[in-house]
Structure formats: C-alpha cells, structure tokens
Amino acid sequence: MKTVVFIETAKSGSSREAIQAAERLGYFTVLFTKRSSFLEKRSEFHDVHYMRLVDLDNIKEIRKEIQILLDKGLMIESIISFVDPYCYTASLLAKEHQVNHFSTEAIRKNENKLYSREMLASSPYAPKYWVLNKDSSLDEYLNELLPNFPLMMKSPQSTGSKDVFQVNDKKQLIKGYSALLNKFPNDPVIIEEYLSEPQYLVEAVVVAGKVHIIAIFKQDIQQQKRFIVTGYNLMLNPNYEFHRKIKSAVLGIIKLHGLTNGPCHLELRQKNDKWKLIEINPRISGAGMNRMILGGYGINLVEETLKMALGIKPDFTKKFRKHIYSQYVTVEEQGILESVTGKNRAKRSQGVLYVYVKPRKGTYLYPPLSMGHRYAYVIATGDSEEEAIRNSKNAASAIQFSLLPIDEEDENTLIREVDAYNLDEQEKDNS
Q1: Which CATH architecture has domain 323-420?
Q2: Distance CA 293, CA 217 (A)
Q3: Is residue 193 packed enough to be buried (19+ CB in 10 Å), middle (13-18) or exposed (0-12)?
C-alpha cells in the first residue's frame, strides 16, 4: 500500500490539510505525533489512517516506527512534515529511505535562526545582529547595544513569536537575556536591530533550482507584549518596482541558504530601500495560509508541495486572481472560555470564504503571547482590496468569546507559566 508518513500536525490549518490532500490523492496516511490528545480524540482524525504516539525528539524511536511500517508491508512513498521543528527530521529520514526530493541540509539551516543569520552575514539582507553564546557576558556587549534600543531578542529555536520579544532599555535587556538562558541554557541568544517598517510574507517553492513565488502578503501586526500577526492581505497587484525588488531579495536569500528543492516562506521588512530578512522557514505558513492562497489563486499549495515530495511534477498555475484578506481574532483579557457566539453570523457575512474558531469550552484563553494565542480567523474576498479587508474585519467582529474570570492566585500562576518573558513585571520589594 502506497504510504505517506507525516511527522506531526496541527489539528487544523496547512499541516492538517496536507494529510487530507494525501488521502484525496489515494495514499495511505500515517501520522507520528507526540500529542496524546490526538489519540484521545482519534475519531476527529478520519483522514489519518494510522496514528502512533512517538517521541519526535528521538530520531531512533522514529526510525523504529518506520521499520514497523515496512515490516507490515507498507510502501513508503514520502516522509514529510509541515510543522516546526520536524521539517529537517522528516527530510533526513526520507533521504535515508531514498524517497527524498527536498534539500535536506538547507532545511536544517532554515530551521535554525542562527544558521540562517550566518548564511546572510556578508549579504545586504541581514539586519544588524549580535550573538551571545551561553558563556558570553552581557556586560561585554552593553556599550555596543545600549545606543541601539529598541532591540529584538530571540532564541535560535523560536517559532510563532513564542521566544521573540522587544526590549526597550537596559533593564528589559538584562531580564530578557536571563529568561532566554533559563529556558534554553545550552543555546545562544540572538539580538537584532528593531525594524519598524511594514512586514511582508512571501510563500515560495523551489523546484530544481527555480524559485516560484506563489504569493506575497502584507501583514498587519498587533504589538503588545509580542508581535502578533492579526491580518494578512494578499497583494494581488503590487507595483512593478516593489515586486522587482522583493523578488530579487527572495531569490538572493534562498540561494544563500542553498535551497534548491522544497518549500519555504520568508518574512521581510524594507529598510532604506534594502530588504531585510526577519526569518525564513522551510515550509508553508501554518493556520489559514493554504486556504488564503487557494481562495486567492486556486492553488492548493500543500497538495502541490506534497506532489513534489512524492516525485510528481507540481502545478503552480494561478487559476484565477481574487482579493483575499484574513482577519485573526485575539482576546484582551484572560479567562476560562464559557461560550463562543457569532460564528454562524460570521459565516453568513458578505464575501466570507472560511471561518475557523479554535478553542473549546473550558479552555484557558490569554491575550496573545504567541501566534498560538490567535483563537479564530475569517478569510474573506471582495471586488477590491478594500472590500476584502472590510468584509473580513466585519465578519470577525461578530465572533465573541465569553470568559469566566480566574481567581487572582491562579491568574498569577498562569501568567508565570505562559509568559516566561514578562519584562514589564514589577520587581518585588524585599526590604
């Protein structure tokens, strides 16, 4: 039986839609996951034909599970992941089983923010940055760092804004550095200049060295304790000069990373007419990205990426061109979810293509500290860019989360658990 092995998935979004695409293409789907909750809710994964709970951080265990599949007589056609940080693991295992069609070493470098910065160090695409190793003393860098506030701090392993934050003064710098070292004691800390310019996301796929730019989105970013993307605007008709320059930057960045086969998405900002890479990841963006591209261009990007992984020629032809905007919903207070209202009203709203609400009753909700704290989104279209934006925002405003309060002691505990980098927290007076 022809089989595709997926290493981890989210419950919904691009990674889950890839599994659904494999089933639609007639493959037996296998999911290795470390999330026991998925096995507890096995009936919700009808598109997964075989699911196993596996320690995904132990490659030897994954190899054993793959051998079990082979012993059962399954013909593994692809091993793939659409989830950080398993893209490299999947590509490496696919290479071992001679079913790899992606650039494994480039994926390894893309997954690590430090390797990525090193690839671009002598290029015009890297923002100014400093690397503090675990044995470094922050004091050695203070004279150089202090004139450059505000700054961004991040772990090389950061994903979804979880371990990325802005520091505005010496006190926050010291506190943030200490927090990152506590969480990742064996990793360096990356400090970068803060770029205030608008941010753009580029979805691309490289096939035999040829870069296909699939879509460009302008991101709307909510800046509170973290930088959270709350809106994606598909740039259907960017002006010639903008498109020429961002394409040139994307091609240069991808070449420097050595990616000759495989998907990636890049986040960029333009400083003084020069494009700077915020980050690159060796996969399609998660959440609603695949549906946005499908709605805007008629391209099912996860399906075409999967075809590529299977050795089948992908088709990136744009079937049509529609304005698309996706509005994400967050909450301003934390609490226990009692009910969600407005989902059906949002679905019936003008121009709406898709509505997704993530949390269930009883879930703890928080003001956003990572991309995972975006709790719903609405993808909408319109006859113009402005109408698509208006339709999406209007529909999203109908979705309301009713929260039960948390007592003060539990609230303080949750804050400490969720926000390891509460840089604004007041120091206790021990006098």
Answers
A1: 2-Layer Sandwich (3.30)
A2: 10
A3: middle
For 131, residues 6+ apart whose C-beta sits below 8 A from its C-beta are: 114, 117, 188, 189, 190, 191
Per-residue model confidence (pLDDT) at position 163: 84
pLDDT given for residue 288 in this prediction: 97
Q: What is the pLDDT of residue 162?
A: 77
The partner residues of 206 in beta bridges, in order of sequence, read 211, 262
Fold of 2-108: Rossmann fold (3.40.50)
**What backbone torsions phi and psi does residue 299 show, to the nearest 5 degrees?**
-100, 120
**What pLDDT is stored for residue 427 in this prediction?**
41
Residue 191 is which amino acid? Answer: I
The strand ranges marked E within 290-351 are 323-329, 335-341
Number of H helices, E strands in the chain: 14, 19
Spans of all domains in the chain: 2-108, 128-193, 323-420
The stretches in the chain having pLDDT less than 50 are: 426-431
pLDDT on residue 133: 86
Indicate the pTM of the whole model: 0.94
Angle at 49 between CA 47 and CA 54, to 5 degrees: 110
Query: What confidence score (pLDDT) does residue 135 get?
Result: 80
Q: What is the pLDDT of residue 421?
A: 58
CATH fold for the domain made of 128-193: Dna Ligase; domain 1 (3.30.1490)
